[in-house]
Structures are given as structure tokens and as C-alpha cells.
Amino acid sequence: MKGILSILLGAAALAPAIIFILLIFTLKAATGKGKKALLAAVDLSVFLFFFSVYIKMITIWELPALIYLYWSFIGWFLVFILFFALAKWKRPWKALKKMWRLSFLVYFSASFILLIYGAGLYILNELY
Hints:
Helix content is 91%, strand content 0%. The protein is an all-alpha fold. It has one domain. Helix 1 packs antiparallel against helix 2 and helix 2 packs across helix 4. The longest helix has 36 residues. It starts with a helix and ends with a helix.
């Protein structure tokens, strides 16, 4: 049972990056436009990286699940309000799009950092 759980957690750690790359190539082949394919892949893979960070944080620090979800929701809401206010309280869809792309950058970076941190922590625990 522990081996199956390890395989699933390993897949959750690497799968979003692989799926993101596959999305870019698939959408580029379908549309023929590189920039549009990249932006569409970014938009489609935000939830993958969100849940990847969620799984990594719970696995590394054994946090209660609702803490991460609560603070992520609060953060998304505050960033949306910030972008909406910067747009002078007009064009909520544009503010939502900016917030969505910013959240991709945050979750992509956090996923990569947590992957490196978790691997390093595992190696150190195995050495000692």
C-alpha cells in the first residue's frame, strides 16, 4: 500500500509539468500559433499546478487540508480586487484574466520549489 501511495504522490509531483508541456505541443499543432498555444496551455493548467502545490504541501508538512484552500481563496480574492481596482473598477474579465495568469506563475514556481525542497528533504532524511 505504501508503494502505491508513493507512486501516486510522485505522479502528482511531476504530472502537471509533463501535462503542461504536452498541452503546449498539442495546442500548437492544433492552432499553428505558438503564443496562443502557450497562453491557452497556461490557462488550462492552473488547476493542475494548484492541486500539485496542495498535495506537495500536505505531504511535506502534513498540514490540515483546509488551511491551504482557505488561504489560496483569500489570496485569489485579494489579487482579483487589486487588479480590478487598478482597472478603475471596469472590465472585470480583464482583471480575472490577469489574476489567472499571475496565479499560474505563482503556482508553477511554488510547485517547482516544493519539488526541489521535498526531494532534498527526502534525501537528507535517508542519509541520517
